[in-house]
Each structure stands twice: as C-alpha cells, then as structure tokens.
Amino acid sequence: MATLGMSEDDKTALKRFEDEVITPSMSKLVILQFTAAWCGPCKQLTPILEQVASDYADKGVMLAKVDVDEQKFIAAQFRIQSVPTVYAIFQGQPLGDLTQYRTPGQLKQVLDQMIRQLPLEGDAQTAEQQVEPLLEMGEQVLESGDGERAIILFSQIRELAPDHPRAIAGMARAQILAGQAEAAATLLDGLDDKLAADPAVAQARAQLKMARLGEDAVDTSPYVARLEADPDDHAARFKLAEAAMADGERDAAADQLLEIIGRDRDWEDGKARTTLLELIEAAGLEDDWSKTQRRRLSAVLFT
Fold first, then answer.
1. Which of 26, 183, 195, 250 has the most C-beta neighbours closer than 10 Å?
2. Positions marked catalytic
3. How many Å apart are CA 244 and CA 242, to the nearest integer?
4. Is 60 exposed, middle or buried (0-12, 13-18, 19+ CB in 10 A)?
5. pTM for this one?
C-alpha cells in the first residue's frame, strides 16, 4: 500500500497492520477477523475463532482482529461491506474467505486443507522434522524383528512427540513384537477417537488382533476333516484361516479367506472379507503383499 498522501493516522494504522498481520503471515497462517463492537454475530464468532486459533497455534496459525470502526483505513483497503468478515492470510495475501464457516468443525476442516499445502513454521512442523528420521529408524528396527530395541526407540520418540500417531502405533507394534500384547492393548484402548482413527494406529490394532489369535494353540485336524467332507463348511475353513494367521502364515490365511469369499461372499455378514481386510491392514496398506491381496480380492468380487 502506498503511503503518499496518507494521513498520519492512516500511516499509523498501516504500520500496526503490517506488524500484527503482514509480518507474521510471512511464516504463519493468519485468521484475520473484521469485527465491530456493536456486531452481535461477531461476538458469537470471536470465541470460536479464538479457540480454533489456540488449538492450531502449534501448527503455525494465529488470529488477528481489525475493528472496522477504529481502523477504517484498513477496512477500506479490504473493501469490507459487512461484519463479521474473516479471511485467511498467508505471506501478505488473502488465501480464502472463511466468513461462511461458523463452527469449530467447519473451520478446522478448511484449515487442515490449507495447512497441508503451506510451508508454515510452527512447533508442530518443527517437531515433525525432528521426529520423522527417528520414526523411519523405528520402522527399520521393527522390520528387523527386535521388539525390545524398538520399544526403547519408540519410548524416546514419544518423549519428543507423545501424541504423534505413528509414534503411538510404533510403540504398540513394538510391544506386540516383544510379546507384550496387553501393554499394547492398554495403550491403544486409551486413545481418543481422532488418534484411534489414524491409519497407523488402525494398523497396530489389526496386528494386535492377529497376535491374540496366536495365544492359544489350535488343533486344525478336525477342521481339515470337516472340509474334506464338505468344502462349503465355511466355519471350518475360517478356523483354518485363523490358525494360519496365528502362525504367521498370511498366504495360507488369505487363500482360505478368499476361498470363502468366492463361495459365499455374504457368509456371516461378510466376515471373511472383513477379516482379510484386517489382515491386509495389519501388514500395511502400502506393503507389496497387501497390494497383491487387494488385487486378488477385487478379482474375486468383481469377476
């Protein structure tokens, strides 16, 4: 904004706006609220914006306010016609009009979309940069089969990022690997809904279910005999699949489950399909084995 011909009050207002909005927006996402003391809807919206900004502060989000009566020059520059008006500002430029979003859920949804696309500088981003190499190291230790060492490593990671879903999931998987299934169950059962829904946590929960299948040895010979007598004895085939999962024979388990799906995909409300998807999830959705089984499942379902 050019300052030529501006009054001293306008220059003061502009300098204040630069300090409180433009400069912070170089590295943060600024929620800019245009408001007024006489505006009833503004008074209802302000505490919502304040709470959301507080919740997202560690992700590089902040709230700034402009009173349209006290800062008429700034309001005029944005051509504000009514209040409340709310913009998202990054690097001095409006990214979007947030005025229509009036609930915490709506605001957080749109902020999440913006944050994923912006190079913000917040504590959460800094922590993520520090934790990411350690998480990769933890995955390597898990793949090596050293559960005890993985527990030590993920304990250290959780000291840095106690609520990081991959750190929580990694700890649970390490405990499962080390034979501490109950500790893993306690950890996973204590999570809030948001963390529990994270894909990494879901994978750990699926692995816990597989591990619990192996706690009791199963004599499979009766089920083999039942299948020989009746290939459509899906309950017997499912028991064989469970036994294979408990022994870590996921190929055999997948074969049995796919056979059930091919013969009767709706058996017990799709129990075989659900179990196969859990087995795939336990292996990790991006695992090559999982991709192969998803293709096999698609072939059975859609041919």
1. 250
2. 39, 42
3. 5
4. buried
5. 0.56
